[in-house]
Design the sequence.
């Protein structure tokens, strides 16, 4: 067995990443204070009042998933992902998307590549019901090696988020469609050290696993919030299960997780990645966590079932810590 892989060994130091977020947070609040602007803090977004409306502006990119898309010419998926990733985030805070802009940085004059990305953005925009107002396409052969895609989404609050998560509330997980768009720096290093993209892994070609589109949760979340069924929602993206801290305050969770999908097991086994690292980096088959009062659990799972997505009642909110019990009996504390 070779050396154990970590996200840091692959090139991403999560502690430094969080330090960058801390610096950005300080700048944001310094600007708001000097301008006299009141910021409303959500788990995934900040918002401001504009007349009678509460609006948010959110940005996210596809990351190194774009390397796989670029090498195969299957670029529609990264157009889809850059929109859906943003919309899932703002929906966790009760916002619906109104408008989108995009940024495409590319290394050459490949018109067809840009067309494919924009077709993916179009499909996502029509799915979520948001207009695309424009964007930027930058051809930069001296800076970019391949393609990089990001989007910004303007959202307006559709529903009030209940909040007030408390000890004893129930944690419900909703399935992902694979890696979505996070952890690819580690996944690529591990998987491509052994396999080619056209090799069969876990019953499908590896490229199909790596280019699965991100699941859209926006409509589901707004329906749950509109009916007062959930207190909070967490889009499990970069940072894996540690993302749940955004809505817990000083509380924690105790959850029993299902068996991870085969692709995550393969990354873990092939890269000798510790299970704790896996749950800090990847969604592990759970792309969304919902927190609800115990009396609403049956209604929540009925709504999820109506959406066609698989779900698990994972556990409860506790006083502190992120505690994970795997099917093997292994306990992980993040």
Sequence:
């Amino acid at each position: 067995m070779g050396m154990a892989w970590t996200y840091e060994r692959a090139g991403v130091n999560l502690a430094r990443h969080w330090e960058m977020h801390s610096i950005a947070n300080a700048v944001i609040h310094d600007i708001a204070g000097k301008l006299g602007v009141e910021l409303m803090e959500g788990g995934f977004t900040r918002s401001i009042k504009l007349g009678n409306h509460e609006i948010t502006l959110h940005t996210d990119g596809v990351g190194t998933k774009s390397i796989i898309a670029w090498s195969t010419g299957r670029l529609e998926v990264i157009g889809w992902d850059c929109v859906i990733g943003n919309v899932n985030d703002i929906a966790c805070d009760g916002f619906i998307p109104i408008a989108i802009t995009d940024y495409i940085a590319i290394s050459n004059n490949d018109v067809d590549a840009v067309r494919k990305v924009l077709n993916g953005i179009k499909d996502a925009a029509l799915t979520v019901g948001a207009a695309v107002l424009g964007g930027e396409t930058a051809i930069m052969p001296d800076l970019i090696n391949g393609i990089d895609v990001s989007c910004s989404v303007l959202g307006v609050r559709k529903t009030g988020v209940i909040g007030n998560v408390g000890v004893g509330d129930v944690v419900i997980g909703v399935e992902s469609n694979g890696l979505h768009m996070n952890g690819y720096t580690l996944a690529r290093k591990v998987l491509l050290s052994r396999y080619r993209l056209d090799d069969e892994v876990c019953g499908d070609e590896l490229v199909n696993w790596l280019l699965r589109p991100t699941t859209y949760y926006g409509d589901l979340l707004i329906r749950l919030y509109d009916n007062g069924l959930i207190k909070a929602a967490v889009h499990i993206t970069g940072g894996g299960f540690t993302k749940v801290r955004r809505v817990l305050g000083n509380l924690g969770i105790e959850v029993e997780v299902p068996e991870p999908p085969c692709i995550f097991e393969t990354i873990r086994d092939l890269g000798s990645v510790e299970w704790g690292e896996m749950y800090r980096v990847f969604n592990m088959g759970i792309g969304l966590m919902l927190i609800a009062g115990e009396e609403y659990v049956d209604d929540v799972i009925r709504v999820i079932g109506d959406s066609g997505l698989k779900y698990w009642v994972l556990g409860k909110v506790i006083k502190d810590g992120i505690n994970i019990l795997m099917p093997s009996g292994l306990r992980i504390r993040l």
Summary: The longest strand covers residues 95-106.
